[in-house]
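== Folding the chain ==

***
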Amino acid sequence: MLFGVFAIHSPESCPLNNKESKQIFLGIGKKLEESIKKHNIEKLVGFYMSVLEHEWIIILDANNAHDIETMCIDVGISSTSTVKIVPLNEFEKVLARIAKK
């Protein structure tokens, strides 16, 4: 199942403006790679950023949101950002479901 992880931080806690956030951010990629299997995440599909919006969007293939929540805490994402985890559906699958009704 696909999930979108939307992490938003304030301009004051942005890694571009905050030394502590910068140190956490510089280690996020490696920590994510190391944590995927530990937290039962099938795959990191994509990791995107909107710098001016101060938002990270991470797409994960996982079995449930609780594993993602634990991973976000363990790797440090939740220490600088508010995190929202949203189940996602592929467009074609939604179309097929709608067509059946």
Notes: Strands lie at 2-8, 41-50, 55-62, 82-88. The two ends are 22 Å apart (CA to CA). The first helix runs from residue 19 to 38. The first strand starts at residue 2 and ends at 8.
